[in-house]
TrEMBL record:
Keywords: Hydrolase, Lyase. The keyword Hydrolase applies. GO terms for cellular component: cytoplasm. SUPFAM superfamilies: FAH. The keyword Ion transport does not apply. InterPro entries: Fumarylacetoacetase-like_C, Fumarylacetoacetase_C_sf, Hydratase-Decarb/MhpD_sf. It comes from the Bacteria. This is Fumarylacetoacetate hydrolase family protein. Pfam families: FAA_hydrolase. GO terms for molecular function: 2-oxopent-4-enoate hydratase activity; hydrolase activity. Residues 88-252 form the Fumarylacetoacetase-like C-terminal domain.
């Protein structure tokens, strides 16, 4: 696919995100390859960076069975994070800019050094400065939150916002930490970090491999979101959203 067409699709997605308006799926009609889809994603992110946003890291997507089943796409994908997507722990979150937002429980990594293109699990762990419980706000730009693999890749893996809880040194085993996602005091999703590829560290290894292959190796200071450990929950105004994670504490926000 030529760059002109890729730019047009990137603009369509970027506008949909800017104005909170859903658009029809296009991957199938456009005959988008995986490579085209990632090119659309990169071009849409370039538009955001041109507007003054700064790159903060990588998000992994569809790294758990629960997530794959929920959206009907069964491949691990990745997307790019910017500072405009960061929301403060405990702060109000206005849903006005979203189309049909959902929230999901994740684990976040903070990197203290760059990662090689194909790290071992030990090398990946060595590069981790800190880990934190985190909430991701996803918001597909596609109508009815329905998409194919190519669509969701182009759409930056539905990335919309992220909230990071307290950082901890990665001294403890975080491969199987229990977690509860509650909305208004009611437990809505219960799971474990083990839901993320059996161990979220595998997600970090995949992030290193996939972003290095795209020519953007993981950098010191970047955040890597490991992917939802459970299915996502729809968000509505007036909710209190809380993630409690074994050993790592809590992260929360209130929707308006
Ligand atoms: C795709 C994004 C997946 C995750 O953590 O699995 C994702 C979607 O569910 O819309 O962020
Ligand atoms: Mg996610």
């Amino acid at each position: 696919m030529n760059q002109e067409r890729i730019s047009l699709l990137a603009q369509r997605l970027d506008d949909a995100a800017l104005y909170g308006r859903a658009i029809p799926q296009f991957a199938e009609a456009e005959g988008l390859s995986m490579q085209d889809a990632y090119a659309v994603q990169a071009t849409a992110i370039a538009r955001r960076l041109q507007r003054g946003e700064h790159r903060t890291g990588v998000k992994m997507g569809l790294t758990s069975r629960a997530k794959m089943v929920q959206v009907g796409v069964h491949d691990v994908i990745w997307g790019r994070l910017t500072d405009a997507m960061a929301e403060a722990d405990g702060a109000p979150l206005s849903l006005g800019r979203f189309v049909h937002p959902r929230v999901e429980p994740e684990l976040a990594f903070l990197l203290r050094q760059p990662l090689p293109a194909k790290p071992s699990m030990a090398e990946a762990l060595e590069a981790v400065a800190a880990i934190a419980p985190a909430l991701e706000i996803i918001d597909s730009r596609f109508e009815n939150f329905k998409f194919s693999l190519g669509d969701v890749i182009a759409d930056n893996a539905s990335s919309s916002g992220y909230v990071i809880g307290p950082w901890h040194a990665p001294g403890q085993d975080f491969s199987n930490l229990g977690l509860v996602l509650s909305i208004d005091g009611v437990a809505r999703q219960v799971g474990s970090t083990a839901g993320i590829l059996g161990n979220p560290l595998r997600s970090l290894v995949s992030a290193a491999v996939m972003s290095a292959a795209a020519g953007e190796p993981l950098q010191a200071g970047w955040i890597v979101m490991a992917g939802g450990a459970t299915a996502a929950e729809p968000l509505n105004p007036g909710q209190h959203v809380l993630l409690e994670m074994q050993c790592l504490g809590r992260v929360e926000f209130n929707t308006t």
